[in-house]
Design goal:
single chain, alpha/beta, D-Maltodextrin-Binding Protein, domain 2, 10-stranded mixed β-sheet, 12 helices, 10 strands, 51% helix, 17% strand, disordered N terminus
């Protein structure tokens, strides 16, 4: 009897110990696979999935997920699914979005000094833009986002902006006269086009195609990749290589999210933003010539603007450059122009 009771007690204790061990093991397994251990970066952009910017975003996703072994996942949202550039940038401040990669132009609402990159004819070519933006001067502007609870990690490329319209070819500055040109909601852009004699109309990008179809505006200005991939040739007849402004993209991440990463994770994300940006620049530049050819094949008249015509346009808008240089800070603007001159040698 005693022996039977002893065996019964030992059996009960074994069951209890086994159960406890199973609970601990199960708990450990749950912790390892807990979704809370996986950080998610939601990344939104305004352009569609065919644009080189989206290809760059996919490259960023690939690098981050591979280097972190999947502990950071990147969800991508093209075509303005999460709002326009300003809305998404505000989302970074609010912590409702982790990454967006807008043009620098609408960023003047957050960092007014970024307006220097809207100066017409600031950069003579891609190589000069790379040297300035990837150097100390470019970093100085990225650091300005810190005060807005945003971390700016790198510059990507939107490209040199060109003009399309439905009325006539633009070969000279005089051809702007009276044209209703959609621009971004950016005061410097508006003033520059007024100086050229155009009637600039600020408008959200998502409204542009319909506005061109309905004749609300005669034309617009964007890099050739955007012109082609957004199928503006369906609503416009003429495209001119004005190259009037070089516009960078700027890779932005929520400072709250970034600060919550480990040092190793921060390094991976930062390096990935730079590496993906270099890849994106290559893609967009390789596509540029093909895009102009494709626009011609779609029936658009492609007009090559001469260096002399661009020089005349620059002379006309110089008072606008002087005005905004004073507002931004003449010393800072001069620092940018000095960097451009040095990089151009």
């Amino acid at each position: 009897m005693k022996r039977s009771l002893m065996l019964l007690l030992m059996t009960v204790m074994l069951v209890v110990v086994t159960a406890c061990g199973s609970d601990e093991e199960s708990s450990g397994e749950n912790n390892d696979s807990d979704s809370g251990d996986t950080k998610t970066i939601r990344a939104g952009i305004g352009l569609n999935e065919n644009h080189p910017e989206y290809e760059g975003l996919l490259k960023f996703k690939e690098i981050v997920e591979e280097e972190t072994n999947g502990s950071i996942e990147v969800e991508t949202y093209p075509s303005g699914q999460l709002g326009d550039d300003r809305t998404m940038t505000e989302g970074l401040q609010l912590g409702s979005l982790e990454v967006t990669i807008p043009s620098t132009s609408p960023m003047v609402n957050f960092v007014p000094e970024m307006a220097v990159f809207d100066f017409p004819f600031l950069f003579p070519d891609n190589e000069t833009a790379d040297a300035v933006l990837d150097g100390p001067v470019g970093q100085k502007f990225l650091d300005m986002f810190d005060e807005q609870d945003i971390k700016a990690l790198a510059y990507w490329e939107n490209g040199f902006r060109d003009i399309t319209n439905s009325q006539h070819e633009i070969e000279t500055a005089e051809d702007f006269e009276g044209l209703k040109i959609r621009t971004m909601e950016n005061d410097l852009h508006l003033d520059a086009f007024r100086e050229l004699g155009a009637n600039p109309t600020p408008m959200a990008f998502g409204e542009l195609f319909t506005a061109m179809q309905q004749g609300t505006v005669d034309g617009q200005e964007n890099p050739v990749a955007t012109i082609y991939l957004e199928k503006f040739y369906e609503a416009q007849e003429y495209v001119s290589t004005t190259n009037h402004i070089y516009t960078p993209f700027v890779f932005l991440i929520s400072k709250e999210f970034y600060d919550g990463l480990s040092e190793e994770e921060q390094q991976i994300v930062s390096d990935a933003a730079i590496e993906a940006g270099e890849y994106q620049r290559e893609v967009i530049r390789e596509d540029a010539e093909e895009n102009f050819e494709a626009l011609g094949e779609e029936g658009m008249t492609v007009t090559e603007v001469t260096p002399e015509a661009r020089e005349k346009m620059q002379e006309i808008v110089q008072p606008i450059i002087d005005k905004y240089a004073e507002e931004i800070g003449e010393d800072l603007v001069q620092e940018v122009y000095d960097a451009v001159e040095e990089a151009s040698k």
